[in-house]
Amino acid sequence: MWPGSVRARATLGATAVVALALAAVSLALMGILHANLQRSAKETATQQADKVGRLAAQGTLPDLLPVAPGADFIQVVDAEGHVVAASQNLTGRPPIGHLRTDEGPLRATWSGEPFGDEHRQRIVAVTATTPGSTVTVYAGTSLRDADQADEITSVVLGIGAPLLLATVALVTWWVTGRALRPVEAIRSEVAEITGHALHRRVPVPDAQDEIARLARTMNVTLDRLEDAVVRQRRFIADASHELRSPITVLRTQLEVALAHPDPELWPDLVSEVLEDTVRLQDLAADLLFLARLDAAEPAESGPLDLADLCRTTLAARHGDRILIDAGLQAGVTIEGSRSRLTRLLTNLLDNAQRHADRRIELTLRADRATDTAVLEVSDDGPGIPEADRDRVFERFTRLDDARSRDLGGAGLGLAIARDIAGHHHGTLTAEPHPHGARIVARLPLSPEAVPAD
User: End of a domain among 253, 271, 292?
Assistant: First the structure.
């Protein structure tokens, strides 16, 4: 039974709240009005009864009692139940004998007393001691005005309340509809966005409200989604191209071996096939590693001494073309994955080995101003043009395509290194160098790290 739309729920909720508030206010209003009229009638009757009681006590009680404004009748009855005096409208009427004041002054409301009409009377009875006996003074005030006021108020509320509730429901329905119209436009646009229409964006309302912020946030999310899809498609296309090349070479070499079954040629062919197989294996490993980074797979992380990691990595490298000069500051500790940071450093050193002429430098220091560890790898090779210093970190990017292929590079090393740095909340950039290339990684220091001077 609960409405399914936000518009209907908002309308029902607002109407219900207003209905409850209106009912409470109506009851309070009628109660206050009724109490005030009752109190006014009681005070008028009490004043009239007390005044007549004083006259009776003084022995100056006239037979025909005057009625003060606001009072309807007065009657004085003695102890034997005889009417001693009364107002003109009660002349000849029997005493109001069923009302007793044995337990003190009487304040009561009676229907039909003493005239028998449909309106109630507020009757006050007090006793007074006269020179000869004790009498009871009855003074009454009609509640006709109070009853009429109650009836009028009930009619007004009975007609006005439904009209007010209907107005509230209509206004809430209209206002909620206008407020939700941009949401419906956003929903319709999102429903039309598919994998082949990621360029589309949801409309942003002119009003600077929550819905406008939602639309802007959704457009930013769509921007990221489109960028991710474009990168994925480019990655798949580049990976397919890179995998096709070594596979084609392998097939050609095998076809040559079959076409020329000369045992003397097999060692050279097998060597070339093995070389291409290793290249293909390395490429597949790089692609798998990138896929894991993109999937944000967790890696073991903990405090890590970067100087120790650098020394271990350098000691494990055999057969490098150029000897690496290392200047490592001790005590530079970060939080990170040893295996992934080792891969980052290895990729930077491999890149430098491909392009250096005679010199490669590895430096590590702590920048206390920014609380970062600064890891630099520089070489004296051809360097990186300023226009390509950001593009060089894109996947499958080669500034010297033919040379990179000859040396076994697939254009993934620096891309993997930058992704690793990003996963460690750091950066990897290509910076100016007077004689070659300079790649700088900046990683946040561990909070407990106290770098040595």
Answer: 292
